[in-house]
Each structure stands twice: as C-alpha cells, then as structure tokens.
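It is worth pausing here to work through a concrete case rather than discussing structure prediction in the abstract. The textbook approach is simple: state the sequence, then state the predicted structure, then interpret. We follow exactly that order.
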Amino acid sequence: MPYPLPGVPWWHPKRVLQDLIQRSNLYLFDVWIAGSHESESFFRNLGVSAPMPVIPQYGISPERFFPQSGLQSLRSDLQLPSDSFLIGFVGRILKMKGLATLIEAMSLLPESVHCVALGSGDDEAWFASAVQSAGLTSRIHHITSVQASQVAEALGGLDALVLPSLTTPTWKEQFGRVLIEAMACGVPVIGSSSGEIPYVVGSAGMVFPEGNPTELASMILNLKTDNELRRTLSARGLERVTSHFTNDVIAKKIVGLYQSLLLHHSSP
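Step two, the predicted structure:
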C-alpha cells in the first residue's frame, strides 16, 4: 500500500486518486504484514483493525557472517596504528545517512579513534570536502569498492559500526540492514533514532538522538574504554540476530501466519 506522495497537496488529482484507491482497499484483507513499526502505526491510524504482525523486511543467512577475522587485514590496508579504535559506516554515501553527524562526532574524539566509510553514492564529493574541512583526512578513511561478498570480512575488521541516519521530509531509515549484518559478525552497533533503527537494535546496541554528534561521540568513547560493554553488546547482537533476523526465522513467521489464516478459513 503506498504512502502519501511527498510534497503533493491533498487536492492534487494524483493524491486524490491514490487516497481513494488506498482507502477502498483497506478493509479487504484478513491479515496484514507490516515491514516496520511505523508502517503498522500508519495503517492503524487509517482505521485498519485486522491482525498486523510486524515482521522484519530483511533477513540474513548466519553462516555468511558469524564472527569474521578481518581485523588485522583491514587495519593493515588502512595503515592504522596498532592501538587505534576503528569504527565504521557501511552504506550509501548520502547526506541523509547522517555522515555530517559522524564527521562532527569524530572531531570530538581522541586521535586514536579512526573511522572508515565503506560504500559509494551521490554525495562522495561533499563527503570528501567535509572531511577535509574538519581536518580529519588522517582519521576518516573512505573505501568505495567493496564487493557484497567482502562486506562480512570488512565488518569483522571493525570495533564498532555506526549508522547515524537522519530523518528528512521525504525519507527515514526503514530498516538498516547493515545493523543486523554487523551484529551477526559480533560487532557492537550504534544507531540513530531515525525510523526503524531503534527497533532493529533493541537492547543489543546503543541508540543516540539523530543529529546529535555529542551523544554519538560519548557512546563511541564508552565503547572504546569499556571492554566489558563491547563483549556484552557483541553477545547480545549475536543472540538478537539468531532470534529475530535470520531468513529461517522470518520464513517460519510468515509460514505460520499463512497457516493460521488458512486454518481460520477452513474451520466450519
């Protein structure tokens, strides 16, 4: 079911037609599957009362990720000091991913903290300029050519993963797949409060108010200085992925939903 067209007034023919189609179909279904908690809230507010379990949009195959050993190779590739603490961002290089927040947070952290951004995107030139303007070219590294098959190894080379996404008038983080990939590698995660991130992270990681570099820097520093916290979040992340975000778990939830629906309709 489509969301309202961003920036299109309610009286526009396209918006009126969309709303008409949407509302005329709301009550045709016996059960809904919401891909996010916000989706569930959106359709509840439209009057949908049918069962609507929230089932993750994505799952992973654990055997592709579970703890990797890419730490030394990544540090070597980046020529980092042996005592450096390495955080990472993995995803599209876009402003809406909160990279300005990450850069500002890095400026508040000690020189032993390094960051690597893995990915490409339309805002690469802006990102390079912002890093240079902040005087962080020696501590923020950018790698654009990472194959999908290499993501797990790259994640395994991090001390922590950060997803600092920012909500915009037309977008917010709908899931954050890299969060579950990092957790599956035993890497502690820090995410912003944008969209679905807090629900994905749960108690297995740390969540800061989006757009707040001071809080982000504080959380990174806590991870750097607290070995027990890192071990705890690593274990929690692995358990959370196993319990909620594997392809097998998600498939079983969907099959169970279909089976209950068929049983309901086959009952006299």
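Step three, interpretation. The chain has two domains: 13-58+246-266, 62-244. The radius of gyration is 21 Å.
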